Amino acid sequence: MVQAQAGVDDHGVVQLLMFLMGAKPWSIRLENVRMILPMTRIAVVPGTPPHVLGVISHRGEIIPVVDLKELLGLQNGKSSGVTEERIMVVCVEGIPTGVGCIVDGLLDIRSVPASSLRPPPSTLDANVTQYLEGEIPMDKGLVGVLQFRGLAPQKSDKQ
Amino acid sequence: MRIAAGGTRAKTTSGGGAARKPRKAEVLGPTLEILLFEAAGHTFAAPVSDVERVIKREEREDEISAENVVDLAQALTGGLLQAGTDARLIMCRSRGTETAVLVSSIKDIVRVPLADIHPLPPFVRQALAFPFVRRIARLADDHLIVLLELREIGVSQPS
Prior knowledge:
heterodimer, A: 159 residues, mainly beta, 11 strands, 47% strand, globular, B: 159 residues, five-stranded mixed β-sheet
């Protein structure tokens, strides 16, 4: 089991924001989400790697936006069919604005025992595991719990 | 700077596209005049001070030698040449050499308060392959436009 960490309340419960990406539900600790924004116009920045979509402006802040599916290498997966895309701005170490992540839609917020959080399986692709805190059993199977504290972009190879 | 037929004159309000509401900041503080243009399906901008003149693409043979022409769409995405009738050459001079940057069309000239010119967020900057992409302008409708340092494009492109 993963050790209980910050964000776990006195009763050993952690709050997870559930969201859709591709055909699967995913989750992230609510404390790691700075805000949720409706889909907005993204200023494309040329010369960035494919997962860096560009930047958005929100209340005076310029926030970088990444394509989560591209970042995790899930771009060839099934589509969720949901068209309620949102920009989920997540907390990232050293980036005060956070980083916006495109998700296909929001599901709900679940309170789960921190003790039920399992380490990520070793069989998963490294692209995913570096951003996976663990997995948690839900109604229809295991749901990945993402974390982006150490997110740093790879330099684009375009020249 | 001279603008050829089909070009545009500077507006006294800040903003691009449909929304061009006057802003208090532009009359109160210093501004930067920027040229908005389209390339590779996106709108970009460059400081007018970097531009010597804008000419129609057909004038190219008389005006400049072909080796000094940089097709911006091709430089940014490796895509097709911009051959439409609205295509223009933005002429700029760097280290004594005149370079023509080919764009799909010229859209506008606007004044933006210097306070609305920002460096790209470090997260995006670290990932950039192009040294001529460094700044972003926030227009009147909160629309962000990437500023290109045109005088560096010819220098950084392999001939």
